[in-house]
Amino acid sequence: MARSSYPRYPDACGWTALLPPRVPRPTVSGTHRVKYAVVGGGYTGLAAARRLAELEPGASIMVLEASTAGEGSAARNSGFASPRDVPSGATQAELQRGAAQNRLTEEGFGWLTEIMERYGFGCELELTGRIKGAATEAGAALVRSQREGALRLGVAHEFLDAGQMEARIGSRYYGAGLFTGEGYLLQPAALIQGLADCLPGSVALHENSPVTALRRRGQWQLETPEARITADAVVLATNAAVKNFGYLRDRLVTIYTYAALTEAMRPEDAAHLGFMAHWGLLPAHRLGTTVRRVGTDRLMVRSMYSYERGIAPERARETLLSCFHRRYPALAHVALEYVWGGTTALTMNGSPFWGQIDAGLFTSAGCNGAGIVKGTILGKRLAELMLVVADPQEVSAAFGTANWIAPEPFRSIGFHAIAAVERRRAGAEA
Ligand SMILES: Cc1cc2nc3c(=O)[nH]c(=O)nc-3n(C[C@H](O)[C@H](O)[C@H](O)COP(=O)(O)OP(=O)(O)OC[C@H]3O[C@@H](n4cnc5c(N)ncnc54)[C@H](O)[C@@H]3O)c2cc1C
Q1: What structural domains and CATH numbers belong to the chain?
Q2: pTM (2 decimals)?
């Protein structure tokens, strides 16, 4: 039997704190027999459960979430989502792969917006475009090469010099930037709570119900602190925590990253946030800091990556405060109201692991920090794979598959060495 620990969230997520309180679904107790059990109520798990219910309306489906909708990484993220991405390069192979990915992510994004419309809930979804911000020479070179790529591919964009960056976002910190019109921002806690609260009737969601053991005896048996569940098939939609069940330890690493929301600013302070009413900035360097404007009067900052374990809360707060104040010295008197951490799963080659891992056991994990849309479409396709209506080649052709990672201690030595080099390269963008 695989006994599993499960994530706990000691620091309250700021996005959830901004929403009205929500009553979580009841903890599971007693003995249950279901056709499908889904472990994890993030984007992947809820998409898989919803799609199973659509395709097999009579089937009993249970979703078991260790925490609540609003406390997992599905709510803790920065809220960047996009139906399309610019391909990584302009070779024939890169263009084909980019188009295959975009077909899937467009479907995932379309499905999310359709669900929101059908059930009438919002998540402050705004088409804002994206700014890639460069605060170093190396970052500026990356931005210039992305501009070349955008030009070659005919993607509408605007190259921004330091003055134009300052006008848009109010900060003199960035020497250059690239604005592309694609890309949405949303309130992630509102989205995941909305999705959790409009599941089809045949899906029973149980929150505060961690699965602590999983074994197969003909059927699958799952244990939570107060219940035993038997299921014909199981979806492990726990992202990096799939390793807690003994799977994919040679494919995924768990990364902790941190985010903060400022306190609400006075109008004269908010005037320092540039002329754009809504904007989201991603760093040119992948280990850099993400910044976005939230509503009229707050900023969100996300930064830091820590391997397999979290950072002390005071260090996370101090670092995020410094990231914010370095970019906005005129707002040095503005404090952070909420600071929180979350996890994501990284793979060596950036591809997710998606598919069957044992008889009647399926998973999709490793969205590499972009799980709102990818988690949704990969969860949807996983349900289709289980009911034999999906072509597994479609997913691997678009996203590839997570490759092997060396075991410990080589893995952590390698990670720390790469991270040290990359941190130096990120420089002021961190
Ligand atoms: C700070 C931060 C910023 C990010 N920014 C973005 C962004 O801007 N855009 C974007 O697309 N992505 C972003 N991400 C990544 C995104 O949040 C994840 O990729 C996404 O949440 C993955 O969805 P998922 O459903 O696969 O996994 P998760 O959302 O992690 O859901 C897995 C769920 O499984 C539950 N679970 C784990 N173990 C058990 C168990 N034993 N029993 C029951 N339940 C269990 C967990 O509590 C969790 O709720 C960010 C992540 C972080 C941490």
Answers
A1: 2-77+190-248+350-399 (3.50.50.60), 130-181+252-347+404-430 (3.30.9.10)
A2: 0.97
Residues ≥6 apart with Cβ < 8 Å to 341? 11, 76, 256, 257, 258, 259, 310, 311, 313, 316
Q: Is 375 in the pocket of ligand 1 (CB under 6 A)?
A: yes
> How confident is the prediction along the chain (430 residues), in pLDDT tens digits per residue?
677 788 888 899 999 999 999 999 999 999 999 999 999 999 999 999 999 999 999 999 999 999 999 899 999 999 999 999 877 777 888 888 989 999 999 999 999 999 999 999 999 999 999 999 999 999 999 999 888 888 887 888 999 999 999 999 999 999 999 999 989 999 999 999 999 999 999 999 999 999 999 999 999 999 999 999 999 999 999 999 999 999 999 999 999 999 999 999 999 999 999 999 999 999 999 889 999 999 999 999 999 999 999 999 999 999 999 999 999 999 999 999 999 999 999 999 999 999 999 999 999 999 888 999 999 999 999 999 999 998 999 999 999 999 999 888 888 888 888 888 888 888 888 9
User: In this structure, what token pair is assigned to residue 177?
Assistant: 């930037």
- Distance between Cα 319 and ligand 1 center (Å): 22
Using a 6 Å cutoff on CB, does residue 224 contact ligand 1? Answer: no
Taking the centre of ligand 1 as the mean of its atom positions, its distance from the CA of residue 165, in whole angstroms, is: 31
> Is residue 74 within 6 Å of ligand 1 at its C-beta?
yes
Regarding the beta carbon of 363 and ligand 1, being less than 6 Å apart is answered: no
Helices (H), 328-404: 371-386, 392-399
Q: Measured between alpha carbons, how far is residue 403 from residues 249, 284, 349, 406, 418 in Å?
A: 11, 25, 6, 10, 17
Going by C-alpha positions, the residue among 254, 256, 247, 200 that lies closest to residue 363 is 247
